[in-house]
């Protein structure tokens, strides 16, 4: 595709101000053509990525084609090139603008197409590091999980995941059993970042196995990145939960693994997103069905808030 004026691209796509400003900040060079999988192979691939049939049907309906505005195709190339340029990176990356999702499947699933276009790159990266196929595909199948969350949240979930899923297609994160571990070595820290997907009970046994796996996995596949601890930042580490949950609850047993660090920030939005699957429903209209939901709602209705607290635990030795 020929060189384009980013301001014209933003104008022709009729983007909201914030998105338009991000597009105007791009250079006008023609990006490489995104290497999407063949359309005929897409259904099987989406199934392997745990994408639900309804979501898969929408993705296929909006598949990049000659019907796309050329400016949208240009932007897709730019986004894919930006992520590909940071292959192996593990920091947060926002590769493009947040697009209006009410314009149809092509717009709603724009970043899915970017994800699919990067699969060959990250699979090759995994292979170079000896990452087993089962870990590779399990990690990448977080796509389907997040699309399902977004659907349950009526579209409120995906914007947050725009940068989150760039970790997966850059080789920055790995799902090892119940938990996900993000490579995040810096000159100041040799700590893996821990993430807790919505994939079942957070039992002590499942967490023990994930930590044991991580202790073996990273020295084997990333020997040049020595990690000595794991950090976690989450509302799950808010000590206030102990006022509402039984001492033997999985969440409190998970908390006790960590040395809690000072400080914290408001995590109420994260709590509502992950526990109730909504950000738009008023508190007095929420229905609590689990002990965690009842605890969380009681605290919020009493005027409290939930904090994202950070904790750390040594990677070597039993967590």
TrEMBL record:
<dbReference type="InterPro" id="IPR041273">
    <property type="entry name" value="NAT_N"/>
</dbReference>
<dbReference type="Pfam" id="PF18164">
    <property type="entry name" value="GNAT_C"/>
</dbReference>
<dbReference type="InterPro" id="IPR041644">
    <property type="entry name" value="GNAT_C"/>
</dbReference>
<feature type="domain" description="GNAT-like C-terminal">
    <location>
        <begin position="173"/>
        <end position="312"/>
    </location>
</feature>
<dbReference type="Pfam" id="PF18082">
    <property type="entry name" value="NAT_N"/>
</dbReference>
<feature type="region of interest" description="Disordered">
    <location>
        <begin position="1"/>
        <end position="37"/>
    </location>
</feature>
<protein>
    <recommendedName>
        <fullName>Acyltransferase</fullName>
    </recommendedName>
</protein>
<feature type="compositionally biased region" description="Basic and acidic residues">
    <location>
        <begin position="1"/>
        <end position="15"/>
    </location>
</feature>
<feature type="domain" description="N-acyltransferase N-terminal">
    <location>
        <begin position="41"/>
        <end position="171"/>
    </location>
</feature>
